[in-house]
Write a structure and sequence with these properties.
Length: 234
């Protein structure tokens, strides 16, 4: 069994939680929240049905997952984020839109994927603008590295889609190298390796900030092979 990374991909800052977010965290958690725990979740039981399932990791304030959940009541959406104000913000969105197809976990996604999510449980996984950790000495904090990508691929259903985006070219190149090296994944863009921006992603707060700083955006998209097609020696 692979051991979990020791260095976290985030530093929890005391960021201000607004009164509204605090109320949401308290009052709406029983409706939308899932506590972190060591046992695998039965996601059909969590959502009360079996439907196509999308996981977003590091959703920030939940602009993407909140609008997707509102636009697609036929699918279920699970978000993981460590930043409490952002979680509170998504809970407010979920309440405002009367969503019943959204659940949230406020915990390190590395641990959640290692313990709470089973293999082949999500049809789509989104990791948009993970912290780029620009400085070389911080690269070890980057979320997208081989062990985590292997776990993402396990959690993804065969034929499912993993979408990544970053506004930092050198991290985009790292994503490309790591994902191309993962046997379970196949790029949907074998030419350049980079994908079109998905039409459903309106610019997030983080992305807009990057645009103001003159950054580009690199999207990547992969699918998971059927188990029968995995290389035998991997
Ligand atoms: C740069 S922000 C981007 C947020 C959002 N995806 C967007 O595009 O606006 C990265 C987010 O990932 C979250 N994050 C980083 N590491 C995480 C982890 N291991 N588990 C869950 N969330 C994490 C951070 O708290 C932060 O909100």
């Amino acid at each position: 069994m692979q051991t979990l990374r020791q260095v976290r991909s985030f530093v929890l800052r005391a960021g201000r939680v607004t009164v509204g977010q605090e109320r949401a965290l308290k009052e709406l958690w029983p409706r939308f929240g899932i506590d972190y725990g060591p046992a695998p979740l039965d996601l059909d039981a969590v959502f009360g049905r079996r439907a196509p399932r999308c996981l977003e990791i590091g959703f920030g304030t939940g602009e993407v997952i909140g609008s997707l959940a509102a636009a697609h009541p036929e699918a279920d959406y699970l978000g993981i984020e460590v930043h409490r104000p952002g979680v509170g913000q998504l809970l407010l969105r979920a309440e405002g839109a009367g969503l019943s197809n959204l659940r949230v976990i406020c915990h390190d996604a590395v641990e959640v994927l290692a313990t709470q999510l089973g293999a082949d449980t999500c049809q789509e996984i989104l990791v948009f603008f993970p912290d780029p950790w620009h400085k070389k000495r911080h690269h070890k904090r980057r979320l997208i590295e081989p062990i985590f990508v292997r776990r993402l691929a396990q959690v993804l259903c065969p034929g499912g889609i993993l979408r990544l985006a970053t506004d930092w070219q050198e991290y985009a190149e790292q994503m490309l190298t790591v994902c191309n090296a993962e046997d379970q994944l196949v790029s949907l863009n074998p030419g350049t390796g980079y994908a079109e921006r998905p039409a459903f992603r309106s610019p997030t707060r983080f992305e807009r900030r990057g645009e103001r700083l003159g950054h580009g955006v690199w999207d990547l998209a992969y699918t998971k092979r059927d188990a029968a097609n995995f290389p035998i020696a991997s």
